[in-house]
Specification:
The protein is mainly alpha-helical. It contains 24 helices and no strands. The chain has 2 domains: 8-35 and 311-530, MetI-like fold, CATH 1.10.3720.10; 50-258 and 286-309, MetI-like (MetI-like fold), CATH 1.10.3720.10. The longest helix is centred in the middle third of the chain and has 38 residues, at 315-352.
Length: 530
């Protein structure tokens, strides 16, 4: 039987993992809905429409809009000068634009809190104290500096792939440079802006570490408070559902904005690259902007972490550090391996089979990624509370990591699959191999690099994950992320510095992988034969 005849009939060993993942994502969420509607109608109305809910909604939306807007203001000029101008050192400033991803939001919050105040890093190094950054502005700054690289990478990719013929045609029709930018270039950047804004918005909605450290009340912060203090199950379930509703609204808004839009070229288009724009008198302001951004988003946090790391700490905290480091490895390693194993069949279903059920199973993995971690953690708590063998064990934490980060693992495997011809399996079958063995003999060797990248992505993401770890880990279990948060809430900056530094070093590996992929993609783009 040929590949074209079987593309609608996936074998059970590829279909079963997809069904298991879909069930693992949806069942806890369904149980969360059931738990939320346990109360009577009058009580539900009182919960949903109470004044506190409106306050939380306003705070959450204000933070999302503020972080996305600030991210655009930070990322757009950086993307422009590093792709379209004659700026010197473009690769260096591109690296600096991605480096903030190595400093997770809660570590950025730790750095800001350690920098400010009368005993902070700024006061110790320069004398006058820097005002304490708390509340909305503290959360806005920490999340903006951490998330703006997502917008930068999307905008940079869009600008590199922009057809210069569009600008040349607009200029030939008499348009000014300003008109060309706003009417020819900016509309082509909409998909990148929407995609980057969606990623930033999802990070803000799902954030727990920054808003809790900065004492800024959002749905995530209220959900954590409800769980640890009052634990009204019905109210906590509704807070989780409201957070899910906001996430779904963001996904719908992005799809709605892009519906019916067309940005591709008609015909083969231009094969030459755009001529770099001379900065002229704007060269010095450009370097001042780049230097200021680097100082605020990379240098200041790293100096703060280094300053507190050099402080003398009791030896007992060093023992805790080693315990937390081993705890992070203990759950991140099996989660990364399991996620990569599941990513292979799901990516295979999405690439090799065109049936609706296969596409649905593959896209279902993204539900776990889009679900805010605190909401998903609460759903798992509700669902597994009556199962002592699983509840508050490492198994539930590994399960949560696997489901949440599966979407990150599918991407590299899918990219490798697109480059592996399906005819290789047909040839293997013609030699007498059964379908399963034909896949491992012909196709799987070509996926190894993608699988390795997937393992690395999930491992590094799990190492710095905070909300899932904090709510689902066994009592007394320590990880790097939890200890950074715990010590920072108590203003014990020297004790938390080593954990923050270890997370930054691990996250730097993740940034390195991103840059390697970007460099390879850029090489393929510039060196491809015309």
């Amino acid at each position: 039987m040929t590949y074209s005849e079987t593309r609608y009939l996936p074998p059970w060993y590829f279909l079963l993992p997809g069904v298991a993942v879909g069930t693992g994502v949806l069942l806890p969420l369904i149980y969360l809905v059931v738990r939320a509607f346990e109360a009577e109608v009058g009580e539900l109305l009182q919960i949903v429409f109470r004044a506190r809910t409106v306050h939380l909604l306003g705070n959450t939306l204000l933070l999302v809009i503020g972080v996305v807007g600030t991210g655009i203001l930070l990322a757009a000029p950086l993307a422009w000068v590093t792709t379209r101008t004659d700026l010197r050192g473009k690769r260096f400033f591109t690296l600096l634009g991605v480096l903030p991803l190595a400093i997770p939001g809660y570590v950025m919050a730790y750095a800001l809190l350690g920098l400010s105040g009368p005993s902070g890093t700024f006061a110790s190094l320069f004398g006058p104290s820097f005002p304490n950054l708390r509340g909305f502005w503290g959360a806005l700054i920490a999340l903006s500096f951490y998330t703006f690289p997502y917008l930068f990478l999307n905008l940079r990719t869009a600008l590199l792939g922009l057809d210069p013929a569009i600008e040349e045609t607009a200029h030939s029709l008499g348009s000014t440079s300003r008109a060309v930018f706003f009417h020819a270039i900016v509309p082509q950047l909409k998909p990148a802006l929407y995609a980057g804004g969606l990623l930033v918005g999802l990070h803000v909605l799902g954030d727990f570490g920054v808003v809790s450290l900065m004492r800024y009340e959002t749905f995530s912060h209220a959900l954590y408070t409800q769980y640890t203090a009052a634990f009204d199950r019905t109210y906590a379930a509704w807070l989780a559902l409201m957070l899910l509703a906001l996430t779904g609204s963001l996904l719908y808004l992005e799809a709605r904005l892009l519906r019916g839009s067309k940005f591709h070229r008609m015909g083969s288009g231009s094969s030459h690259q755009a001529v770099p724009i001379a900065l002229g008198a704007w060269r010095i302001p450009a370097y001042v902007y780049l230097g200021t951004l680097t100082l605020a988003s990379v240098v200041a946090p790293m100096v703060t972490i280094g300053f507190w790391t050099l402080k003398e700490v009791h030896s007992i905290y060093m023992q805790d550090f080693l315990q937390a480091l081993s705890g992070s490895f203990l759950v991140s390693t099996p989660a990364a391996l399991l996620t990569a194993v599941l990513a292979v069949p799901l990516a295979y279903l999405g690439v090799r089979y065109s049936s609706l059920i296969c596409r649905t199973l593959e896209r279902g993995a993204y539900i776990g990624y889009a679900t805010p971690p605190l909401a998903f953690a609460l759903a798992l708590i509700f669902f597994f509370r009556g199962i002592p063998a699983v509840y508050q064990t490492l198994w539930i934490l590994i399960y949560a990591y696997t489901v949440h980060f599966l979407a990150e693992a599918i991407g590299p495997v899918r990219s490798a699959l697109y480059q592996a011809s399906p005819h290789l399996e047909e040839a293997a079958r013609s030699l007498g191999y059964r379908p399963f063995k034909a896949f491992f003999k012909s196709t799987f060797p070509l996926l190894r690099s993608g699988v390795i990248v997937s393992i690395a992505f999930v491992f590094l993401a799990a190492m710095k994950e905070l909300p899932l770890t904090f709510l689902l880990s066994p009592a007394g279990y320590e990880t790097l992320a939890v200890n950074v948060w715990s010590y920072t809430t108590e203003a014990m900056f020297p004790e938390g510095a080593r954990y923050a530094l270890a997370i930054v070093l691990c996250s730097s590996l993740f940034v390195g992988l991103l840059l390697m992929k970007d460099a390879r993609a850029s090489y393929d783009y510039t060196e491809a034969p015309i």
